[in-house]
Each structure stands twice: as C-alpha cells, then as structure tokens.
Amino acid sequence: MKAISFVKMHGTGNDFIIIDVLKQKATLGPEQVKQMCRRRLGIGADQLILVGPSRKADFKMRIFNADGGEVEMCGNGIRCVAKYLLDGKLTSKKTLEIETLAGIVKPEVLKDGRVKVDMGTPILEGNKIPVKLSGRVINRTIKAGDREFRITCVSMGNPHCVIFIDKVGKFAVAQYGPILEHHPLFPKRTNVEFVERISIKEIRMRTWERGTGETAACGSGACAAVVAGVLNSKIERKNLVHLLGGELGVEWAKDEHVYLTGHAEEVFRGEVKI
Predict the structure, then answer these.
(1) Catalytically annotated residues
(2) Residue 120: inside a domain, yes or no?
(3) Is the same domain home to 10 and 104?
(4) Over the stretch 209-259, which tens digit does the pLDDT of each residue have?
(5) Are the C-beta atoms of 262 and 11 separated by less than 8 Å?
(6) pLDDT (tens digit per residue) in 107-123
(7) d(CA 191, CA 221)
(8) 118 within domain boundaries
(9) Where are the beta strands (DSSP E) in 129-237?
(10) What is the C-alpha separation between 169 and 167, in angstroms, rounded?
(11) Whole-angstrom distance, CA of residue 274 vs CA of residue 116
(12) What is each CA distance from 188 to 128, 131, 147, in whole angstroms?
C-alpha cells in the first residue's frame, strides 16, 4: 500500500478531497474514490479532485463524484482548487486558467479571500445539455414518480434540471431527487435543483447531485438556478443564492457569462493509504 497526501476543503459546505498530483503520483480507480469519499468509513466528501499539470492551461483538475464516476465541472470545487493553489504557493497568479472536461475555466481569488469564477455561457439547447427534448427546455412538464414537475434545463458544463417549488425546506428531495437524476430524458443523468423564490434578488435552493445525493451546496447548480429563474422571468440576473451550507453570489452578466462568487476553506490535511 502507498500513502497519498490529501487536503480536505469545502466551498459553502460542499466538501472535497483534493489530491495534488503535481508533487506525487496517484492513480485511483472508481472503488478507491468511493471508499475515500465514504462518510464514517473513509475521509468523507461529496467529490474527489485531482490537481495536476496541463498543456492547455495553468493547471488541470479531474473531478470524481462520490460514486466513483468522473464528471465535467464543479463550481465549488474549482473555487477550492484555486484557493489551494494560491495558499500553497503553487502559483502567484490571482486569476488562473484551469483545464476541466468542460473546457478551460477561470477562477479569481479576490482580496477578501473569496473566489470568483467565470463559469462561461450557459448551454440551453436540449440536445447539448443533454436532454432528450428539442429546443430550449424551459418550464416543460414531465412526470417523475407520483407527480408532475415543470422543469427548466441548463448546462454549466454539466447537466442541471431546475424546478421551482414552494417551501423548499420541507420538500422531499431524497425521494424525488434520484427519480429525476435517472429519468429517461437525461442520457447522462442530471443534477437536480429544487428552488424557492424569495424575491427578485434572492432564491433558496437544495440540490440533488448526480452520483452523490443531496449536498450542502452546488456552485454550478446555483448558476443554473439563476439562469433558469431569469428564463422564467422570476428573478433578476444578479442574485443571492441561499443553500444549506451558506450563500453564493451569482450573476448572469451582460456578456452572457455566469459569474459565481463565494468562500473556499481548508478543513484539514492528512495521508491515506491506497
């Protein structure tokens, strides 16, 4: 067995195991990722991230869900990676280019310690999200389990299904989240955001993350929720998103890019044998 160094971080309660493969070699299979992400029996995390060199950007990140599957993008995860790289003096750049499966994403570490990420332009065409529906999927009705939902679908480099409901705090996320995640409409499964409108400038959100379950926060999901809210004429383009783990600022700006801002914190460091 080999000892691998890791850092545990969180962004608004969305927690990550970050393994630096700039300094060490670490080849992980799905079962090893699942074991490390397990609560109580492992380190415990929503996702595991490998940070390494890139030929296209400053660094490259690979993101694995708690079920061991690799995914395209994570807004909270990339904020944690940017903070890790700057705090660890692995870069002196305040604005970075990081390669992901969703393309090159640019996080910026602000003077107050928060990290702002240019999440790019949202993808709205159903076949590109992907969703098995033509055109933009805005306020469409689908059946899931014993009830119907009106869905708006957005990709922020990864797929999201946004549903506006009342009293999100009491909603049965654990019941309907997995049904929607695995719905036949979504060939790559989907993340599901259940969103309550507080005002035109604030929303409250709970997320069922693909391959993980309900999490305390989801950065790309917060972005998708704001985009969906604007498309449904419910909220303004600049919004405060309340999540179980805290708050995130999201703006769908005039340049059509979505910007995500929030804190990223180191929790602890350690070694794990694999």
Answers:
(1) 74, 218
(2) no
(3) yes
(4) 999 999 999 999 999 999 999 999 999 999 999 999 999 999 999 999 999
(5) yes
(6) 999 999 999 999 999 99
(7) 7
(8) no
(9) 140-144, 147-155, 159-164, 191-199, 202-209, 213-215
(10) 5
(11) 34
(12) 11, 9, 22
| CB-CB contact of 28 with 16 (8 Å) | no
> pTM for the full model?
0.93
Asked whether residue 72 is assigned to any structural domain, the reply reads yes
Reading the block at residue 51, the tokens are 């940070």
Same domain, 208 and 170: yes
Classified as helix, coil or strand, 119 is coil
Range(s) of the domain holding residue 53: 3-111+264-273
In this structure, the answer to whether residues 130 and 215 fall within a common structural domain is yes
Between CA 39 and CA 255 the distance in angstroms is 41
Is there a single domain that holds both residue 151 and residue 241? yes
Determine what percent of the chain is predicted with pLDDT higher than 90: 97
Whether 199 is in a domain gets the answer: yes
Question: In 184-235, which residue ranges form alpha helices assigned H by DSSP?
Answer: 219-231
